[in-house]
Amino acid sequence: MERRAEPAASLLVACALRIERAALRSGGERGAPDGYAVLRTGMGPRAADLAVARALAGPGGDRTAVLATGFCAGLVPGMNPGDLIVAEETRDPRGTVTCDGTALLAEALARAVPGAAVHLGALTGSDHVVRGQERAQLRATGAIAVDMESAATLWTATRDTRDTRHRRGPVAAVRVIVDAPEHELVRIGTVRGGISAFRVLRAVLPAFFDWHRSSLLPRR
Predict the structure, then answer these.
(1) Dihedral of the CA atoms 96, 40, 59, 100 (nearest 10)?
(2) Parallel, antiparallel, or unpaired for β 95-98 and 118-125?
(3) What value does the CA radius of gyration of the chain take, rounded to a whole number of Å?
(4) Tens-digit pLDDT profile for residues 174-186
(5) Most exposed among 24, 34, 80, 103, judged by the fewest C-beta atoms under 10 Å?
């Protein structure tokens, strides 16, 4: 007998690292919507592509809200570990994905993490850890932050792998700066910057749930 595919989540929050998933889970799931799930994709754009495609393959996957999250590198001088990035769009070599509900998401994050700086702008993808002069080169393209999975996650999430149609589910990306031009980090969790980012990431889920509820409202 052919096995039926499991229904896709109604809200899929995707992160790459075990420590990112631990931060999200330690924040609790109060107020989570039915069908909420956290997906650890593994590191890098290829891993994110494969994991997200599998997660959305079940019935209802075309309507799933997908939010990419975790840590990132800030590109703008003056940014600090623990600052939040709300992507207005994500970019990788395949193209650009416009995010949904960014203003409402930024407001919800300001409520969830009082005192944390929230930056809105373009989030660019990379297949490696970005350091030194490469930060300035990416900043020159107009991006304000970089990570390895968000762009791949949203690119895959906005495409139906069965054909060329686009999905109808909303997408977003929220990242917490773990290092920045003046605060380069060697390894997450070993210095104050990593600890600050972990504490912020564990506090963001209520904002994600607010964003998801607002995405269910009729669009005008």
Answers:
(1) -30
(2) unpaired
(3) 16
(4) 999 998 766 565 5
(5) 34
